[in-house]
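Bumping my old thread because nobody answered last time. Still need a sequence for this structure:
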């Protein structure tokens, strides 16, 4: 489910970047942010899969490991959102003004 959301967001961001004609440095920031979010999500999936393998029953430490991995994705997604607001915000605001 989360990967589907990230895929949709990636398509929207790339399309918006093409539409707005981002500068090279802006593309670099956007691509790095996208790659970081995808990497965090894939590491989270790996952690969850491994935890499920080694601890099929409930264990508080297993739950904590999953929560921390998911938190890392959230932190990276918020950082990527900040990059998006800094790059796309002024451009979209100019279109609306």
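Sorry it took so long. Here it is:
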């Amino acid at each position: 489910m989360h990967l589907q959301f990230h895929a949709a967001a990636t398509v929207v961001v790339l399309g918006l970047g093409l539409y707005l004609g981002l500068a090279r440095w802006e593309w670099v920031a956007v691509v790095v942010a996208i790659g970081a979010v995808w990497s965090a999500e894939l590491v989270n999936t790996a952690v969850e899969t491994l935890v499920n393998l080694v601890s099929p029953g409930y264990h508080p430490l297993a739950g904590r490991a999953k929560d921390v991995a998911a938190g890392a994705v959230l932190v990276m997604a918020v950082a990527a959102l900040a990059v998006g607001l800094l790059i796309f915000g002024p451009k979209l605001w100019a279109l609306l003004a």
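The chain has three helices and no strands. Let me know if any region looks off to you.
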